[in-house]
Amino acid sequence: MKQGMTLVEVIVVTSLFGILMLVIGESVASLYRYNSYTISQAYQVDHARRGLETLVRDVREMGYADDGTFPLARMEEQLVGFYSDIDRDDSVEYVEYELATSTKLLKRVYNATGTPPVYDLNTPDETYTLSEFVQNLNQATSTFYYFNGNAEEITATSTVTDVQYVEARIIVNIDPIRDPGEFTLRSSASLRNLKDN
Which of 6, 111, 114, 190 sits 20 to 30 Å CA-CA off 182? Predict the structure, then answer.
């Protein structure tokens, strides 16, 4: 003789099944939340890494401006400004990399116009956001470091002509109070067009 389940057994099985589905659903949702944060952090780190690669390439192409101005124009903790033919069109642009707001690392490009060439540094011709989650200012850390030919750090702007090497360090973290935590990127380049030897 075949017997079915009693009402109590059906209620118990349904309840256990519901609790199991709730636990599994919460685990899956938690996994997606954590992974989406990790993926977002990885994307921003990669975005910042590509930005630093651009900086290194531009610094290596640093040269005298079309109007004869010395290649390195500004050297500050959160800003570096220099002349470089970044698009290889035989016209030298003025380029600034700056940690402009509390967390945005920007690249600004100014083209020379006219004859003789003049740089209007009031309004950039192009602006790029290299990273939106840089934590250097929040941690009171410099973004740019400058060194002479003897690998000694230079801090005085009066020695701009002694700079042979520029280093950038940025701390990327999309949410400083959550894991996986901050990621520090470092990159550097020598001013190869200005070498003495």
Answer: 190
Summarised one tens digit per residue, pLDDT across range 13-56 is 899 989 999 999 888 887 777 778 788 888 888 989 999 999 99
Cα–Cα distance between 118 and 42 in angstroms, integer?
41
Query: Looking at the domain assignment, is residue 3 inside a domain?
Result: no
Cα distance between residue 195 and residue 125, in whole Å: 30
Cβ within 8 Å of residue 73, ≥6 positions away: 81, 82, 83, 94, 160
Residue 188 included in any domain:
yes
- Domain membership of residue 172 (yes or no) is yes
Nearest to 195 by CA among 162, 172, 171: 162
> Is there a domain that residue 8 lies in?
no
Domain that holds residue 151: 29-194
Check residue 75 and give left, alpha or beta (phi > 0: left; psi -120 to 50: alpha).
Answer: beta
Cα gap 182→135, rounded to integer Å: 8
- How many domains would you assign to the chain? 1
Of the candidates 166, 151, 155, the residue with the CA atom closest to the CA atom of residue 72:
166
Q: What is the pTM of this model?
A: 0.78
